[in-house]
Amino acid sequence: MTDTRKNLCPCSSGKLYEECCKPLHEGKVAENAEQLMRSRFSAYALNLPKYIIKTTHPSSPQYSKNKFAWKRSISQFSTAATFDKLEILDFKENKMVATVTFTAYITQDDADSTFTEKSYFEFLGGRWLYRSGRLEEGHAPNLVTTGQLKLLPLAYYGDPILRKVADPVGEITDEIRALAEEMIETMDACDGLGLAAPQVHHSIRMFVTRPPPAEDEAEKHALGEVKVFINPKITASSSETWRAEEGCLSIPAIHGDVKRAHEITVEYTDLEGKTKTETFSGWPAKIFQHENDHIDGILFIDYLDVQERQKLEPLLKNLEKHIHDGTEM
Ligand SMILES: [Zn+2]
Ligand SMILES: [Zn+2]
Which of 86, 111, 190, 224 has the most beta carbons within 10 angstroms of its beta carbon? Predict the structure, then answer.
């Protein structure tokens, strides 16, 4: 007779390892971030550093190009600690970002190293990846948490902040600089081309953009150049317009054609506090106009014609309902 408890999955699911995290460790893609969280915990417990590396986002603060040293440090942690129990306290997800709050009951060198962390996950290339973590309680081993919060929670359609005219930014303080940095991280994590402060619950006149690289540059650079705009103003717009499809991180899964000025001249303050004047055309101009609307409480769906808007109405209602039910991020 064998002791079946021996084969219980270390992730505390109560299931057998074979029926729980083993298939994931052998290549099955996690269905959601909670499952990934569990399988990462059991990978730490079972000393499977390759799995940890495979499921870490390339822009995670823990990501290391030196895979050999990284693997060794994970292994050292796995062997030095006892992974007593995992408790999932909260799990929220949308299409691209998910959070899992958990308590990991760990003993290290005979001392209790239990900690509670809120982890951020991102859906990238068809699978969930661990992105970063914020320590909520206890003292986390450096290896499994960063103590930093890099991704900001988004405000979704129906949130009144998206309809407010935002306030001008006064002095450019360290807080403003930190917010700009977190907004860039959030925009990148969500694969956005732009993100305005009201979309991350700050009603101030600031936004960040990362237009796609120009076609002739696209092969060299996967990502376009980031810009931070503070107290921006459009000082001139071309009468020439063009139409192209837009989407918005605050209105997931909804797209529509919007007509925008082809070329604009803008004035803004940069992060160093310098006033700048620039002219944009094409996508950079379109993105600027979309983000600039956000700080005036305008959304791209406001430009759709009556018919198109009516078609979207059930989707928008549904989205709003989710938010009021508290099922948003
Ligand atoms: Zn498991
Ligand atoms: Zn938007």
Answer: 86
